[in-house]
């Protein structure tokens, strides 16, 4: 525990003086209240891989701090298993793109992986190490919502980790099938899930599973559906919808096709006006600042948002 505390202190010292946009979630019911559809705009983005940028590697605690210093954000992260059974946070199955190492994550021990350094979006090595999933979950308590993608750790295994760490109030799971949704809910009915529900037919199918809508954020797609009935149906169940812009609008900014994100503001807002409540993005800092920098927190949820 002393080793873990030291790592967390080191990772957060650089930004300690900068206030964070925190989500104050103490119980699973707080998370459900945050994500309950109220009809009011929700000033919250979901940072894909935590929101990497120059000097800030993906899936890195320092990067998470950087994102939260600028905007309220959920953090989508990627658990992967090591050779000796530990679970680290790293997107790719291999190490070359984002670390100073080579080979597969699963072929290295945790001790070996901790010797590596993470690379930023420009491929430059930084001082930062791969964090373990336990380290990230401990860091996130009282700060934000973590969204755990699947990779090579199954939905049920992730549910068991959340349960073991008593993190249901602020850790969600991305679950890829309705069968897994049911399995996770059986393991722990307090766990919230992000579930792909891209059509009205799928929404109606989900409704028959017996899993409460309060446990779900509906991811409707990377190409946001135009079917108003889909959004209305999900909202009518009290759930929020999420869309992804990492594969479309964000790329125009990242690749330099558009120099100023403000030029794309009408297109991002069009997705919100269509019925999306949360945008998953590769550029949470500029996007969250642009969309929500002066936005008011919904009155009914004001106690869940804090900047300090």
TrEMBL record:
It comes from the Bacteria. SUPFAM superfamilies: PLC-like phosphodiesterases. One of its GO terms (biological process) is phospholipid metabolic process. GO terms for cellular component: plasma membrane. Residues 43-291 form the GP-PDE domain. GO terms for molecular function: glycerophosphodiester phosphodiesterase activity. It holds the Pfam family GDPD. Residues 1-16 form the signal peptide. Keywords: Signal. InterPro entries: GP_PDE_dom, PLC-like_Pdiesterase_TIM-brl. This is Glycerophosphoryl diester phosphodiesterase.
């Amino acid at each position: 525990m002393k080793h873990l505390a030291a790592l967390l202190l080191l990772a957060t010292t650089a930004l300690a003086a900068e206030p964070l946009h925190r989500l104050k979630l103490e119980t699973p019911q707080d998370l459900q209240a945050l994500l309950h559809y109220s009809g009011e705009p929700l000033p919250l983005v979901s940072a894909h891989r935590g929101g990497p940028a120059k000097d800030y590697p993906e899936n890195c605690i320092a990067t998470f701090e950087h994102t939260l210093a600028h905007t309220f954000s959920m953090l989508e992260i990627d658990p992967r298993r090591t050779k000796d059974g530990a679970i680290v946070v790293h997107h790719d199955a291999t190490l070359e793109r984002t670390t100073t190492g080579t080979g597969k994550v699963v072929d290295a021990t945790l001790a070996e992986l901790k010797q590596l350094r993470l690379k930023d979006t420009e491929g430059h090595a930084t001082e930062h190490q791969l964090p373990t999933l336990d380290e990230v979950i401990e860091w996130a308590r009282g700060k934000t919502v973590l969204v755990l993608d699947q990779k090579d750790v199954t939905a049920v295994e992730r549910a068991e980790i959340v349960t073991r760490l008593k993190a249901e109030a602020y850790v969600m799971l991305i679950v890829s099938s309705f069968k897994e949704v049911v399995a996770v809910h059986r393991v722990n009915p307090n766990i919230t899930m992000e579930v792909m529900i891209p059509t009205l037919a799928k929404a109606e199918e989900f409704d028959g599973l017996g899993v409460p809508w309060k446990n779900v954020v509906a991811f409707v797609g990377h190409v946001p559906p135009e079917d108003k009935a889909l959004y209305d149906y999900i909202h009518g169940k009290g759930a929020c919808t999420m869309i992804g812009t990492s594969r479309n609008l964000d790329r125009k900014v990242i690749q330099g096709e558009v120099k100023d994100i403000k030029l794309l503001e009408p297109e991002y807002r069009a997705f919100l006006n269509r019925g999306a409540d949360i945008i998953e993005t590769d550029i949470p800092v500029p996007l969250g600042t642009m969309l929500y920098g002066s936005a008011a927190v919904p009155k009914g949820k004001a106690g869940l948002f804090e900047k300090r």
